[in-house]
Amino acid sequence: GILTRLQTSAPAVRTLSLSSSFSQNIPSCLWKLGRLNHVAIAVPDLEKAQALYRDVLGAQVSETVALPEHGVYTVFVELGNTKLELLHPLGEKSPIASFLQKNKTGGMHHICIEVDDIKVAMTELKKKKIRILSEEPKIGAHGKPVIFLHPKDCHGVLVELEQA
């Protein structure tokens, strides 16, 4: 019957098993990487972007919040398992303004991952020659300390770490 045909025509599924030699090569850290907190998207028109997620896609969209220390307006789109952060420039010196000059229609700006101890993470990352874009953590959009890692040290991705 059909079940027999599916069993014989279906490709074999391989499972990935971690060998003990692979897991032994992972260095132990004094801090722990947590869950994906959000993906940030730079947008040239914040109201239009809010309307897309709220009115067209039916997502829960936060109010706009100004973060002068970071030079951005921010809006969060709730997705259940994570969030999208919509970023729009606040002032001419905004890093989002320069991003949008190069990317006129906007695009992915950074990813944010939670860590259990941001200060210890900073110390260990510096020892591993990962550049951090500030000397000290700043308070981010969620009211928690954040740092950014240089995209050239993270395979072209700007990574934000946020204290969980």
TrEMBL record:
Residues 35-164 form the VOC domain. Its EC number is 5.1.99.1. It holds the Pfam family Glyoxalase_4. Signal peptide: none annotated. The keyword Isomerase applies. The keyword Metal-binding applies. One of its GO terms (molecular function) is methylmalonyl-CoA epimerase activity. It catalyses: (R)-methylmalonyl-CoA = (S)-methylmalonyl-CoA. Keywords: Cobalt, Isomerase, Metal-binding. It is an enzyme of class 5 (isomerase). GO terms for biological process: L-methylmalonyl-CoA metabolic process. It comes from the Eukaryota. PANTHER family: METHYLMALONYL-COA EPIMERASE, METHYLMALONYL-COA EPIMERASE, MITOCHONDRIAL. Belongs to the methylmalonyl-CoA epimerase family. NCBIfam families: metmalonyl_epim. This is Methylmalonyl-CoA epimerase, mitochondrial. It comes from Centropus unirufus.
